[in-house]
């Protein structure tokens, strides 16, 4: 099953087939994480829909909390997995538990000095919303680092655009004369 199909199935099943919908959300969450372009959908709309399902079907909320708790425990035991941290932060955000994200980051930072930029950036909203501006200043990237990130992101987007144009030209050059005539 493709990840986007699982999400659509879960949305459709939400109409009253709660258990089937929950299975779809669990499958999507566990299997779509490595799909290119799906991770943001997985950490935003899918989680929001899952929370909505949990309002009318409590086992859905419990299942999401179990995933969050399992990943939180792994992080606290020393696992340095950025996608796990992003999952936990996103689940806590859609659940309205930003304070818990802040507390998790503080604990991880105290135990392991969260030096990875992605961890700091992912937790920044919770840090600021909890009013710990001193910690925010400590973990905030310098203006030079931030500018470097923007430049790298721009380069990556430009390279992808150039690659897409090259692929398009290659496809066009591989078409037979009859295919070219029919496409015009």
Give the SSE layout.
Blueprint: H1 3-13, H2 18-31, H3 39-43, H4 45-56, H5 58-76, H6 82-94, H7 98-112, H8 117-129, H9 133-139, H10 143-174, H11 177-183
Describe the structure.
The protein is an all-alpha fold and 184 residues long. The chain folds into 3 domains: 1-84, no CATH class; 97-140, no CATH class; 142-172. Helices cover 80% and strands 0% of the residues. It contains 11 helices and no strands. Helix 2 runs parallel beside helix 5, helix 4 packs across helix 5 and helix 5 (58-76) runs antiparallel to helix 6 (82-94). The longest helix has 32 residues, at 143-174. The two termini are 36 Å apart. 23% of the residues are buried.
List keywords for this structure.
11 helices; 3 domains; 184 residues; flat; single chain; 80% helix; mainly alpha
What's the number of structural domains?
3
Number of strands: 0
- Rg is 21 Å
Measured by DSSP, the beta-strand proportion falls in under 5%
Give the overall average pLDDT: 80
Biggest sheet features: none
What is the helix fraction of residues, given as a range? over 70%
> What does the overall shape look like?
flat
Low-confidence stretches: none
Short synopsis of the structure:
This protein has 184 residues and is an all-alpha fold. 80% of the residues lie in helices and 0% in strands. The chain has eleven helices and no strands.
């Amino acid at each position: 099953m493709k990840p986007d199909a699982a999400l659509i199935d879960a949305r459709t099943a939400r109409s009253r087939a709660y258990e089937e919908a929950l299975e779809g959300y669990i499958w999507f969450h566990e299997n779509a994480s490595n799909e290119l372009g799906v991770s943001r959908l997985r950490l935003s709309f899918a989680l929001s829909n899952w929370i909505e399902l949990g309002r009318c079907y409590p086992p859905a909320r419990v299942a999401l909390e179990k995933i969050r708790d399992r990943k939180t425990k792994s992080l606290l035991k020393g696992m340095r997995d950025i996608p796990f941290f992003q999952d936990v932060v996103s689940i806590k955000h859609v659940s309205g538990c930003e304070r818990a994200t802040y507390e998790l980051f503080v604990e991880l930072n105290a135990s392991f000095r969260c030096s990875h930029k992605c961890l700091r950036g992912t937790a920044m909203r919770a840090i600021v919303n909890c009013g710990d501006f001193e910690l925010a200043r400590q973990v905030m990237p310098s203006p030079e680092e931030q500018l470097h990130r923007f430049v790298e992101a721009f380069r990556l987007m430009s390279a992808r655009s150039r690659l897409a144009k090259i692929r398009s030209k290659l496809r066009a050059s591989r078409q037979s004369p009859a295919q070219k005539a029919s496409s015009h």
